[in-house]
Amino acid sequence: MIAVLAHFGNWELLAAMFGARYKELNVFSGRLHNPLVEKWMLGKKKKNECDPVLRGRCAQKMLTVLKQNGILAMAH
Predict the structure, then answer these.
(1) What is the overall mean pLDDT for the chain?
(2) What is the domain count for the chain?
(3) Which helix (H) or strand (E) is 25 found in, with range?
């Protein structure tokens, strides 16, 4: 499943709540400019069982998620 959501409200809170319910959640995201905040956010995503799919070479990861019937979430 591909979930495309509007980027309203607290996206990280929504991902945490969704990740607690659905274990196959993969969140498409870009890297942040601050490496300390980036490390903190990645830790929060992993703690909430959200596997980040980082921009760059993400096409293979996205196809793998979809072939395994996982959930790919994107905010736009």
Answers:
(1) 78
(2) 1
(3) strand 25-29
